[in-house]
Each structure stands twice: as structure tokens, then as C-alpha cells.
Amino acid sequence: MTAPGEHTAGPLAGLLVADFSRVLAGPYCTMLLADQGATVVKVEGPAGDETRHWMPPSRDGEATYYLSINRGKRAITLDFDDVEDLALARALAHRADVVIANFKPGGLTRFGLDYDAVHAANPRAVYVSITGFGADSALPGYDVLGQALSGLMSVTGAPDGEPTKAGVAIVDVVTGLHAGLGALAALRHRDATGQGQHVEVNLLSSALSALVNQSGAYAVAGVVPERLGNDHPSVYPYGAFPTADGELVLAVGNDGQFQRLCLVLGIPDAAADPRFLHNADRSMGRETLRPVLERALAARSATDWEARLTAAGVPCAPILAMDAAFARARALGLDPVAHAGAERVPGVRHPISFSATPPEYPLAPPAADADRAWVRRLLGDPVP
């Protein structure tokens, strides 16, 4: 069912997503699916999605947290302890192409909304379960717990400081991306076989995968990585360095880039020093090389060095605040802002570009229970 102002095209147009998720991982996943054309129905309990109340900051009295991850959706509030509301929830799940839920393991079983019950009634449905730590753990799925238990915090922060969480709920975000990838892969299988399946993702597995070289160092070689501040464990110089007026990030990934760095900085002796010729040498000798680089960088501002090094093909960047980051994106032709719905609620643009089916933003983030009548019509008024 397509309503005025809703998707008529997009790579996922025609798919119905029943979104039984809240907070971040699930809603972020379903927003990306909505941007790509899917019809997403957001189901909330009587208390609503917690992020509606996570303020400040806010915009016109609504939490920016909620607004940032819920555009493109229809919203209905359902109390599963109410017979009619539960019937609506089941009708939605039985009609959906994709069901996404992030309840605690077993939390939907008594309502007949778990995978087995939905699959029995709707065998074509792809059912995505998002948990904190797997189907056998009742530990609440909070991002900061995932950062702590995965080892992410153990490798984040200064070497002589305390373990530090990332400045955003990155484990939730990565888990949401994995949920979307799993859903699309399962839909591909459904298209080939006619059968849906159960897709399971969790914060801990997602974090361990996202730690890539850090977790891989342990899995492959038994190496337990440590905190290095802004340094990289295997590449140097690769991190933040002080200049005359602020820090500049260098990302010198090969020997040729290091040679050019030294020429621009006016330290040709370092480029020829056998202790620094190759990346492994520089990584091992970083404490000897660091003061050489810092003395040279102290001569100019971060902005000046950025221009000179970029012209020489040396990857570098200043550390920007959010307003400057948006301005830089615009300067690069990557306008980061999109406006959703007739209300033109601003948000961050979908990160993927499609040459034939660009993302659309026909619906602003919905108010609680804003689309009950619409959902009932979509389902053919299953409850009198």
C-alpha cells in the first residue's frame, strides 16, 4: 500500500518491514532500509521508544536522538497485553517481508511473535533478531557493555589513562549495519527459494568483527593489543601530531608517503635514516621518530601543513568539530544534510549513492501512534 508522499521507487520498494525494535541498532537499520524504498512500520509499546525522551539536545521539543534514526517510517503503538493490539502486531508480522526485533531473548515467545511462530504463519518472512550477547544471554544489550566486553574500550584511550568508550554508540551502529546486510542476504535467498530464515546478530560478535586488526591480532597470533592513544599499532606515523596551533592527523601508509612527508617538513635526514626507511622500522622506532616530526611540525599551523602535505600527496587532516565537519563535507561536494517529509525535518543524508535509485526521504520521523489508521488499512482491518 503506497500513500501520497511515500516511496514509489527505490531498490527496496515493495518490501514491508515490521520494525519491533527500539533505541539504536534496530531503528538505524530500518531507517536505512526505508531510505532505500522499503515501507517500514515502527511498532512501539505504550511507553514509546526510549529515545523519544533522551534529551537534550532537542528540536521543537523532540529529542534529536530519536529524530536522527527514525525518518521514513510509519508508527503505531501496540500493547501486546491487549487482545486487539496483539492481533494487529501478529497480522503485521504475518504480512511482512522482514521482521526486525531487539527484545531480550525469549521476550516475544509468549506473544506468538518469536521466529518459530512467525515462520509457521509466514514462511517467506526474513526474521532478524538483534540481541546484546546472543540468544542464550539475558544480559541487556547496551552499547557501552558491548564496548567493554568486546575489548574495544581496552584499546581506546591514552596508554597511561583509563579505558575509554568511543564518542558514539559505535557497536550499536555496526550491529545495525550487520542486521541490514543479513536481512538483504536472506531476502536474496528467499527470492531464490521462496523461504525466509532466521538471521541473528548481536553486539558482542559485531564488535569483535569490527575490531578487525585488533581482534585479528589475538585470533591469529595470540597478541593482546594495548591502548596507544591516537597511534596505530602497525603503521607510523599514523595519528595526531601537534602543530603551531593545533593537532594534525597524519596517515602515512607507505614508504613513499613517508619520503614525501619528510621533504615537505624539511627533514631530509629522517627520510634517509636507515632506522626509518620502512614502515616496520618506523613502527618499532616511533619513540625516536616522534620528536623529530613534532619539532618540524611546530613551525607551521595545522591549516598550512594540511595544504602543503595534501599538495605533496601525503594523507593528512585537521581534527574538526561537528560544525566544521559538516562545512568540510559541503566543500567537498558531499552535502551531508537531507530533509525528510513535508515538514522538511533535517537529518544526516543516507551514506550510499545509487546511480539509478537514489535514496528518498518522503516521511519525517513519526509521532507516537501517528499511523494507526494507516496500518489498519494496510492490513485490511484485521481487527474489527
From TrEMBL:
Gene3D superfamilies associated with the record: Crotonobetainyl-coa:carnitine coa-transferase, domain 1, formyl-coa transferase, domain 3
UniProt keywords, alphabetically: Transferase
EC number: 2.8.3.16
GO molecular function per UniProt: formyl-CoA transferase activity
UniProt enzyme class: transferase
UniProt xrefs under Pfam families: CoA_transf_3
Record's keyword annotation contains Manganese: no
Record carries keyword Transferase: yes
Annotated protein name in UniProt: Formyl-coenzyme A transferase
Organism: Microbacterium trichothecenolyticum (Aureobacterium trichothecenolyticum)
Lineage of origin: Bacteria, Bacillati, Actinomycetota, Actinomycetes, Micrococcales
Gene assigned in the entry: frc_2
